[in-house]
């Protein structure tokens, strides 16, 4: 693990603030729609997608981009990879608990995917392809909460692969990040469980 120097703590704070930019809100500027009051009420990509596909592209680009930017701009060459993971946690937590939205926010999938595209591009792209495939299958078969199912399934696979290929330390960090996004999807999981029991 890296030493928590003032420099690293400052960079973590900057990453958190980068993550806190609510691109779901930004994407809806000029539409007259408060994304927090329509659909699921979640200020994230999937909810914007329900309302406006063109605007959802801006939201997705922003959420992915801030995850990418946090690592590319703030990670120092020569630092242990765990430092990049910590920056990833910071930017994702900023997204999930944005101070501009009363410490509420999105669910972290797109922003964490941006981080992983920098750290493990091949693995991340494979999981993104799996996500798209599952979304298409879920839509065709009418799965309830198909977005959550696709997101969490692919993140689970990604975390396992990081553990197998990168060892227990980084695998543990991937497992913690997976746990965070799973917690953020707890309402979706309740609805899936209710649909299954019905």
How much beta, percentage-wise? under 5%
- How many domains, in number, for the residues? 2
- Determine Rg (CA atoms, Å): 17 Å
Give unreliable regions as ranges.
none
Helix content: over 70%
Oligomer: single chain
Described by strand count, sense and barrel closure, the largest sheet is:
none
Helix count equals 10
Rough outline: globular
User: How many DSSP-defined strands?
Assistant: 0
Output the structural class: mainly alpha
Q: Secondary-structure element sequence? A: HHHHHHHHHH
Mean pLDDT score: 92
Distance between the termini: 46 Å
Walkthrough of the structure:
The protein has 198 residues and is mainly alpha-helical. The protein folds into two domains: 1-108, no CATH class; 120-198. The protein is built from ten helices and no strands. The protein has helices at residues 6-19, 23-27, 45-51, 53-74, 81-96, 109-119, 121-141, 146-166, 168-184, 186-197. The longest helix has 22 residues, at 53-74. It starts with 5 loop residues before the first helix and ends with a helix. The mean pLDDT is 92.
State the gist of this model.
Helices cover 74% and strands 0% of the residues. With 198 residues, the chain is an all-alpha fold.
Write a concise keyword list for the protein shown above.
198 residues; mainly alpha; 10 helices; globular; 74% helix; 2 domains
Any chance you could write out the topology, listing elements then pairs?
Elements: H1 6-19, H2 23-27, H3 45-51, H4 53-74, H5 81-96, H6 109-119, H7 121-141, H8 146-166, H9 168-184, H10 186-197
